[in-house]
Amino acid sequence: MSWNFIGNERAVAAIERALADGTLAHAYLFAGPERVGKAALALRLAQALNCIASVGARHASALQGDDAQGAAPCGECAACVRIAAGIHADVRTVTVEVTDEGPQRKAISVEQMREVERAVALAPFEGRTRVVIVDPADEMTAGAQNAFLKRLEEPPPHVVFVLVATRGERLLPTVRSRCRRIDFRLLPASEIERALESERVEPERARLLARLARGRIGWALEMARDPSQLERRREALQSARSLAGMPVAQRMELAEQLTEEFRRDREKILSLLAEWQGWWRDVLLAQSGAEDGIANVDMQAETQEDARRSRPDEVIVFVQALGDARQHLQENVQPRLALEAMLMEAPGGALSRAV
Known about the structure:
alpha/beta; Zinc Finger, Delta Prime, domain 3; two-stranded antiparallel ribbon; 7 strands
């Protein structure tokens, strides 16, 4: 059996040790950058706790007097398959609610966490352990966190909570203190490249995706499985290039368009802004002579062109503005205001305002 997990070996080892010596915490905080495998390992843990084969392996080791091993989930038994498909009765993921019109709640609410409290009060129905994954945990309202805190203080013996967060500092200190924290990191490009090649991605494509991923193995795997994603990425980068020197009126129109799209699909716009920020960061690297750090290696000619036609001070300001805009949107600042302020800082903005 294998954890079937790429990178962040220390995180996996911490879970293995806890399973092996019987010191599994009742609540974990998986914290780290986006798309590095936090949610994936949370599901693997849920599988390990309910896997028919893994509990059998641990039991056999105990009977034989062997050292206990943190048996990985088999990934093939009925429990593992149902957990992976999201249909296991005892494994629940709590997230921001979404409808056909997009997220109606911009955070995980008190009502959602009270529903969790009612569910975990019951004994496991299908497996041995109830597992509740809160993802993204840093999107819980203060009220939701306080409601959840009551359950963290008196956890049922048959429940394990896993909080998945990119910005763990947004959780209340009282919530963080009751969770065992496991930190995740970005992966080196070489490690991602090897992982992609093991998935039978051709070497040249694996090398490109590893550079583009900026340490996010989840992003790289998604791109590898869906080639059309790369074309959409190229379109996003072309839109990033079009911002330089854009007239004020056009910037305002774009802000309105992005605002409407954000209300329908938050993640789409947050991802777009991340691509824009990555592009202009590459431009800044080209301007400073640090071409080796450029991620978008398949568009180096365009990067150099934008580096020549933009001032470094403007690019620095815009890269920061893009990061600020993403943070403000995640914190539910008025999207139109955040997007307008960001677009007015695009290179050439001072010139366009003066025209």
